[in-house]
Amino acid sequence: MASNVNPTVRRRRLGMELRKLREDKGMTAEQVAERLLVSQSKISRLENGRRSISQRDVRDLCDVYEVEDRRLVDSLMQMAKDSRQQGWWHAFGDIPYSVYIGLETDAASLRTYEPLVIPGLLQTPEYAQALVRGAWPETAPADVDKRVQVRMHRQKRLSETDNNNPELGPLRLWAVIDEAALRRHVGDAQLMIRQLEYLIEQSEQPHVTVQVMPFAMGAHPGVNGQYAILEFPDASDSTVVYIEGVTSDLYLEKANDVQKYSVMYEHLRAQALNVDQTRQFISGIIDHYAGKEQ
What we know:
Number of strands: 6
Organism: Streptomyces goshikiensis
Distance between the termini: 55 Å
InterPro entries: Cro/C1-type_HTH, DUF5753, Lambda_DNA-bd_dom_sf
Largest sheet: 6 strands, mixed
Number of helices: 12
Strand order of the largest sheet: 3-2-1-4-5-6
Protein name: Helix-turn-helix domain-containing protein
Helix content: 40-55%
Pfam family, one: DUF5753
Oligomer: single chain
């Protein structure tokens, strides 16, 4: 299993090519579904990369779209074959948010807002373990360990030496974190001190920016909840807004949706404490946990 194979991104690229062929043919997804005797949702999921696509699917769609260029058909068939290979995360078994991991693995930049917890890419193993145990109390210990291992593996995207995609360089991360995430006790005080010290340490990397949104700011554009914006180095890969859910996640790719969330994030960055203020603020909370606060 090659470490640089990313089936999620390859499925998205293939889906975009198939959507373009359908639109060039002037057909709706419903019309294609009727021709192939499948559901419209299947066609939609194939086009947005949310479903595994077989070479037979590609062949049938190319027949419907009357694609005569054999080289194009062969290229799309090869993309379908490549998209069914496994990414590194499959070695850990069934991961609920595997689609997101695939996107994050190939992203060039990630902007995230976290209202309740420290972002996964900036968590210590001890914090991650305590968080998973608290958030999913019925999870078996082995599954808790698996989730933590996956989270730690994801953090390699922030490293130049352990990057799963060396041609990309480290992931450019910009995280706005609500004060609530810093003050929420996950584990004991010593665990929180180590976590917040690690957060400051990571924020000193040139490609990592951390800002805190203090309680004193009051209502702000992030009160509606957590979200992340992923951008990719290839211009053909559309920006994705990711919203995490309990039983299912939401991925937004329409230009209008992405624009709204991007503008909202700019307001968040403008209203949050700047980088230096953030480090001082986190240091003050560390003192609080250490019992040094007057």
